[in-house]
């Protein structure tokens, strides 16, 4: 793919110019390196080209891919290696890359060939020794920073994308690793791939692998052209590279104006030519570039903007939705199994709390005082045990980071993610409900009968699933674990107040708190279902024994339980809430994509293509 950008500029919503108007190109078979001091706009340029700018940044100018004005890119044609590694900490290197291969390589490719590709990319990235090591997270130390970086690169080069964006691929790598990694990328580029990467401080050997150099300083273009000719350019502008200095170090030293104010302190230690403040040097270099190279750059860009080349079709044969579903469900299930914070810890705490509940309300009976005890016991279970399900949020946040990255690369969308998360979490949520209910139900001796026990368990299952679904919606808006937990707790706390326990339903202020909040809170249906399940069919001693027995139905009326809704109807409402919350999650993700203007990179259809080509 040939990429050309013309009159490209980026500004933040507050008016700050992040990238000044510039042009440039990247051709197939070549590596184009974007270099510059820290904060010079390398990532911004990369993001602008890849269509990944932050919401508050606006791009102007045009980007052409194969001579077509770029709108979106097709799935499999562009890959992006982010600056930070987004990996599931519970998987080994081999598993991480294998799942990615299953997810993205054409379905028609035999399994043996896929595994060969996985092994080969592991070898190329020097990960052979640690291929069975887990990536690592808060629960276990795993790969080093440099190894994680190489796994991130391996994941993206696996499919040999036609266009590869890389944000600082060598950061955290030692010089030998950096060299071999870039050499592998160079090999990839020579097989007609286009690589655009931002890079900090390449060694001279790494620098030699670059074809084109785009040098930025303070958001402006200082040099664009053949990487090897940069030294001639600097020399002609009066800044020759001193002997025994890495050329890239030299370029960055000359154009880094961040330290102009402290330069005087180190006068004796710096070369004569560097005594010129960088701000002056940048002006000289920019003028020299405009005089010597800008015209030829414009000519080259103009040619590339109109040179039509057909897009590669080779990688569009990606696996179908069912294959993606099964691969992602397996991956997610393994992640949930290995991350003790996802469910195991919760299962243990639920078990312990169930014993505590069982001991406190042990053999609750049917005396007059047992009525309040049963109500209190069920309210605690319905409120607090379900609330505790926000504990899995930090682990979910890690998973959603990977989802966001894979979604941006166009591997799959929110519907597939939601389905896989649902399928893989169901066994654990059932286990939580089964263990807890088995313990407290039998200790407390709530309404006898297997059908009553099962109903209780299913309600607990539905409610913890609702809390997980609600937290998914929270994560889609607040993808930070502390803020997410605060937001989720706030919402659940509010629901608890209006479910009819702390204040009976008819005594809640009508405006807002009863209508609609009482009916939105899932605990309303949970508690009513549990109360009906427990009280209906039982008889209790009256306060005054001479007044005879109190029927369960009378008690339910006193607690303002809406008996027109059967306990099963309450349960069905809970199940529907799971669907509603998960649908809200999908809608939020889709809306965010629309607002971002990144509507599914892979969803460009042939009609649109024909129109653009026309
Ligand atoms: N969305 C944004 N809103 C406001 N300012 C931004 C935004 N993105 C980047 N910037 C600013 O633009 C400048 C360039 O940022 P950028 O991340 O592109 O630099 P960089 O050259 O990649 O730096 P580094 O090498 O340190 O990663 C920085 O000063 C940064 O604060």
UniProtKB/TrEMBL annotation:
Membrane-traversing stretches: 343-364, 371-391, 411-441, 453-477, 483-502, 568-589
Record's keyword terms, sorted: ATP-binding, Membrane, Nucleotide-binding, Transmembrane, Transmembrane helix, Transport
GO annotation terms (biological process): transmembrane transport
Residue ranges of domain ABC transporter in the record: 3-243
Keyword Mitochondrion set for record: no
MF (Gene Ontology): ABC-type transporter activity; ATP binding; ATP hydrolysis activity; transmembrane transporter activity
Location of the protein in the cell: Membrane
Cellular component annotations (GO), alphabetically ordered: plasma membrane
Bilayer topology: Multi-pass membrane protein
Family, as annotated: Belongs to the ABC transporter superfamily. ABCG family. Eye pigment precursor importer (TC 3.A.1.204) subfamily.
Protein name per its UniProtKB record: ATP-binding cassette transporter
Organismal lineage: Eukaryota, Viridiplantae, Streptophyta, Embryophyta, Tracheophyta
């Amino acid at each position: 793919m040939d990429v050309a950008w013309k009159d490209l500029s980026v500004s933040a919503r507050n008016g700050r110019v992040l990238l000044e108007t510039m042009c440039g190109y990247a051709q197939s078979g070549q590596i184009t390196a974007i270099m510059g001091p820290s904060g010079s706009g390398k990532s911004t340029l990369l993001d602008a080209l890849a269509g990944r700018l932050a919401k508050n940044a606006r791009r102007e100018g045009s980007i052409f891919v194969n001579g077509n004005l770029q709108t979106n890119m097709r799935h499999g044609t562009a890959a992006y290696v982010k600056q930070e590694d987004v990996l599931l900490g519970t998987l080994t290197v081999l598993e991480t890359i294998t799942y990615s291969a299953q997810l993205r390589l054409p379905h028609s490719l035999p399994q043996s060939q896929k595994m060969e590709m996985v092994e080969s990319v592991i070898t190329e990235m020097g990960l052979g020794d640690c291929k069975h090591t887990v990536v690592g997270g808060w629960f276990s130390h795993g790969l080093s920073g440099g190894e994680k970086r190489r796994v991130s690169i391996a994941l993206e080069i696996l499919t040999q994308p036609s266009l590869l964006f890389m944000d600082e691929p060598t950061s955290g790598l030692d010089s030998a690793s950096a060299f071999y990694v870039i050499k592998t990328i160079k090999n990839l580029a020579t097989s007609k791939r286009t690589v655009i990467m931002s890079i900090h401080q390449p060694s001279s050997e790494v620098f030699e692998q670059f074809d084109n150099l785009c040098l930025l300083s303070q958001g402006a273009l200082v040099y664009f052209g053949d990487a090897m000719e940069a030294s001639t350019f600097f020399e002609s502008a009066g800044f020759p590279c001193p002997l025994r200095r890495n050329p890239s170090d030299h370029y960055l030293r000359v154009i880094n104006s961040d330290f102009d104010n402290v330069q005087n302190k180190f006068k004796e230690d710096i070369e004569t030519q560097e005594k010129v403040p960088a701000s002056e040097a940048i002006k000289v270099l920019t003028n020299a570039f405009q005089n010597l190279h800008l015209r030829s750059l414009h000519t080259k860009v103009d040619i590339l903007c109109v040179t039509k080349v057909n897009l590669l079709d080779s990688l569009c044969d990606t696996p179908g939705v069912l294959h993606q579903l099964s691969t992602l469900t397996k991956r997610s299930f393994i992640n949930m199994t290995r991350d003790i914070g996802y469910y195991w810890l919760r299962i243990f705490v639920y078990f312990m709390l169930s014993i505590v509940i069982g001991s406190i309300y042990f053999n609750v009976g049917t005396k007059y005082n047992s009525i309040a005890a049963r109500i209190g016991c069920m309210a605690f279970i319905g409120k607090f045990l379900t609330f505790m399900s926000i504990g899995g949020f930090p682990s979910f946040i890690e998973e959603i980071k990977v989802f966001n990255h894979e979604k941006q690369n166009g591997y799959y969308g929110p519907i597939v993610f939601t389905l896989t998360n649902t399928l893989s979490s169901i066994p654990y949520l059932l286990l939580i409900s089964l263990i807890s209910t088995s313990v407290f139900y039998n200790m407390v001796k709530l309404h006898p009968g297997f059908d009553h026990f099962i109903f209780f368990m299913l309600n607990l299952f539905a409610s913890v699933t609702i809390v997980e679904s609600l937290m998914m919606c929270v994560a889609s808006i607040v993808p930070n674990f502390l803020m997410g937990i605060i937001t989720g707790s706030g919402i659940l706390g509010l629901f608890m107040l209006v479910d009819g326990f702390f204040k009976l339903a008819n005594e809640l202020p009508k405006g807002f708190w009863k209508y609609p909040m009482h009916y939105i809170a899932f605990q309303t249906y949970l508690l009513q279902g549990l109360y009906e399940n427990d009280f209906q069919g039982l008889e209790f001693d009256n306060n005054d024994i001479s007044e005879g027995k109190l029927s369960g139905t009378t008690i339910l009326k006193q607690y303002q339980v809406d008996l027109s809704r059967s306990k099963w109807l309450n349960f069905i409402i809970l199940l529907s809430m799971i669907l509603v919350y998960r649908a809200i999650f999908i809608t939020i993700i889709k809306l965010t994509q629309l607002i971002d203007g990144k509507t599914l990179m892979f969803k460009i259809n042939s009609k649109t293509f024909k129109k653009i080509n026309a």
